[in-house]
Amino acid sequence: MILKLGAIAAVSALGLSVYAFQSAPEVGSGAASAAAPATVPTGVDAKAPRMIPARLLDCTLGKISNFDTQREQDPSEYTYSSRHKFSLFLPETPVRTAPPPDATAPPEPVNPQTRIVADPDGIARDAEAHAFDRVVDFWPQRVEMTKPISEVAVKLVVIDGIAPNQSTATMFLTSANDAVTFDLKNLYYGQCGVKLGNQAQAAASAAL
Question: pTM of the full predicted structure?
Fold first, then answer.
């Protein structure tokens, strides 16, 4: 059942323009502190773009059974009908210095290494025939991604709640027809362990 969620819509970085999910406030404040500009190491060209390292997220996502469309709901209130393993790889990318494309503009090219690494229960099976078509990567603040299901629907992934040491994050996953139209029977949320850099790259390659 896909329903429009207008009551809790929030501004999003995706070309979708808005999305309807809120993370816990205390998690968001931690992510903000993690986003402080990094200093440039001695001997590194200051003009070279700063890079976000490769990341592998190993998650346990719960299928939300009590999502309330009428109010903002803290994730601590969620109950789950099942739990599922899910792994996602994000390749190294330059730190974003410009806003993402407008919702009406063509999406930016997505690195083809961006992929679902493991989905043993098939919670994103309906999108497996397609590559990710939109990725707005503001790590360590937030990452938003879509993967087409059909001409009118996408699989939506939102990563936030990224800890200051960047070893954990939270993930929200669902199907959507647009920015505020979600499949309420398939809403998933949970915690992820995060591997960075060479460790992430090696683990993702080993999973191929």
Answer: 0.79
